[in-house]
TrEMBL record:
This is OsmC family peroxiredoxin. It comes from the Bacteria. NCBIfam families: osmo_induc_OsmC. Pfam families: OsmC. PANTHER family: OSMOTICALLY INDUCIBLE FAMILY PROTEIN. It comes from Georgenia wutianyii. Gene3D superfamilies: 3.30.300.20. Transmembrane segments: none annotated. SUPFAM superfamilies: OsmC-like (SSF82784). InterPro entries: KH_dom-like_a/b, OsmC/Ohr_fam, OsmC/Ohrsf, OsmC_Ohr_Peroxiredoxin, Peroxiredoxin_OsmC.
């Protein structure tokens, strides 16, 4: 049985929601600390990060890893994959959807097979599964 791996992050928040702010830290790796504030989350993007941006980063990373492994299992390991995730947040409603895109450089595969594997990877990616309460779409799949 594989060892469970636990990763940690933390946030220090000061003040109330609309005028307060904080910092979010990637505690396990120690590689980054990000400023967070409501304005970037609920009013206009930019300036500080948001939970949704962090979710998008996690989802794009997990999806790239899952697709890479599935392509290898198909006998067509990728040379490169460029994945992105866009997480939509509506104040008062919450996260309303996630849109994934992928462009890949993969030798020996046709566009149809790449599309099929990319869609299966979306369904089996652990982060996709964890976020399945919202609609996750794969809108742009293409070979580079």
């Amino acid at each position: 049985m594989p060892n469970p791996v636990v990763n940690k992050a933390s946030t220090e928040w000061k003040g109330e929601l609309f005028t307060g702010s904080g910092t979010t830290s990637l505690d396990t790796s120690g590689t980054a600390t990000f400023d967070v504030a409501w304005k970037s989350r609920g009013e206009e993007s930019g300036g500080t990060t948001t939970p949704e941006e962090l979710i998008a980063a996690a989802h794009a990373t997990c999806y790239a890893m899952q697709l890479s492994n599935m392509l290898k299992e198909n006998g067509t390991p990728p040379t490169a994959l460029d994945t992105s995730a866009a997480v939509t947040f509506v104040a008062g409603t919450g996260i309303t959807g996630i849109e994934l895109t992928v462009s890949g450089t993969v030798e020996g595969i046709d566009a149809g097979t790449f599309d099929e594997i990319a869609r299966k990877a979306k369904e089996t990616c652990p982060v996709s599964q964890a976020l399945s309460a919202v609609e996750i779409t794969l809108s742009d799949v293409r070979l580079a």
